[in-house]
Amino acid sequence: MYANHYDGGASHFHGGGFMPSQATQTPDQAGSSKTRSSTTSTTVPLTIKQITEAYHLNDERADFLIDGVEPSLVKLLGRVLNKAERVTDVSFLLDDGTGSIEVTRWVSDSFDTDEMTKIENGMYVVLIGKLKAFQGKRHIGAHAVRPVQDFNQITLHFMECIHAHLDNSRKATAVPATTSAMNDMRAYQTLNVGTGASGDIREVVLSVFQEPASLARENGLHVNEIIRRLGLQEQKIREAIEYHVEVGNIYSTIDDDHYKSACNG
Amino acid sequence: MDTSSPTVFVNGELLKLYMGRRVRTVVQVIRNEGGAVVGQSTDNQQLTVKGPNQSVPVMHFMEVIGVADGPQSIRAEICTDFGSNFDMASYNGLCKLANGQFKNLFL
């Protein structure tokens, strides 16, 4: 399954089989996957408090949004309580100090049952599973449950939760390109201001561009031609041209001095 | 065990902020005094832990989950032997983060 053993050292740290199979890098980040493959599932380490506060997207699909990420799998660490063994599944309550959640582990073969017999009430365990909701109540369908042997793992897990939270929050607030929005804003504002003189100039300038003769010109009109035609100040004409370029009425052709109307007349 | 209320990660310094509330911390066992254990917290303060489960050997690390009933005392509900290999400095850092900038993830 994880056959890429060319990296000898890293193969020790495959995370006990919980790393997505495409992961060949960062073996020390077991559980909080940042793999680049687009087909891997995301495993996010979480506190139960984060789960209870997660935004539930859709009741049928049971998708949750945490820090802007829809985790496919979650990693939790806590104490086992109220373990109940049934024929097809084992269920228990997981309490990690920030909250508690019901966990179900379906047992279909001896590997599963062996794994679960080791788990006892009061024990610290790490689990990887899927977050689900049923009739408003959230619970976990565990894929794997393992006892914690080195208690430093507790500190580590919560540090990973903080780290993943920071990482995902930073990505969610990454500034998208706001320049187009700004241009619209500016255009809108100048439109308001454009009553009176400057508004007239703009209209006049635009009408020159939209004359059939102008439209017929492959490279449009040179700014100086407009100036000559209208007899207005170059600065004002350039301002009008700039405005029209912003709102999309005209566009520059061979250089910054030639413009043509974007409309077909 | 009351599973409805969250337990706060504390060190010696933070313990006094959560009087009367359920807290969790790790101490290194210094000595057993009758019904109480004296331990050193992750920030080198001496804490007294009263209650059951006092079977953790000296020099081992012990996790205490209980109610803070004094500025340096906890009435324990659960004690867990964390063995002899535990990083107190990291846990101390976690306590500070969990009560500071990232409190919303924990409480």
TrEMBL record, chain A:
Ranges of residues in domain Replication protein A C-terminal: 172-257
UniProt cross-references to PANTHER family, sorted A to Z: REPLICATION PROTEIN A-RELATED, REPLICATION PROTEIN A2
Keyword DNA-binding annotated: yes
Gene3D superfamilies xrefs: Nucleic acid-binding proteins (2.40.50.140), Winged helix-like DNA-binding domain superfamily/Winged helix DNA-binding domain (1.10.10.10)
Keywords for the protein's UniProt record, in alphabetical order: DNA damage, DNA recombination, DNA repair, DNA replication, DNA-binding, Nucleus
Record-given protein name: Replication protein A 32 kDa subunit A
Limits of the OB domain: 74-140
Family affiliation: Belongs to the replication factor A protein 2 family.
Residue stretches of biased makeup (Polar residues): 21-31
Region (Disordered): 13-43
Biased amino acid composition, Low complexity: 32-43
GO terms, molecular function: single-stranded DNA binding
Species name: Rhynchospora pubera
Automatic annotation (TrEMBL), chain B:
Alphabetical keyword list: Nucleus
Membrane keyword on record: no
Keyword Nucleus: yes
GO cellular component: nuclear lumen
Localisation per UniProt entry: Nucleus
SUPFAM superfamilies registered for this protein in UniProt: Nucleic acid-binding proteins
Main location group: nucleus
Entry-linked InterPro entries: NA-bd_OB-fold (IPR012340), Rfa2 (IPR013970)
A biological process from GO: DNA repair
GO MF term (any one): DNA binding
Protein family membership: Belongs to the replication factor A protein 3 family.
PANTHER family: REPLICATION PROTEIN A 14 KDA SUBUNIT A-RELATED
Name by which UniProt lists this protein: Replication protein A 14 kDa subunit
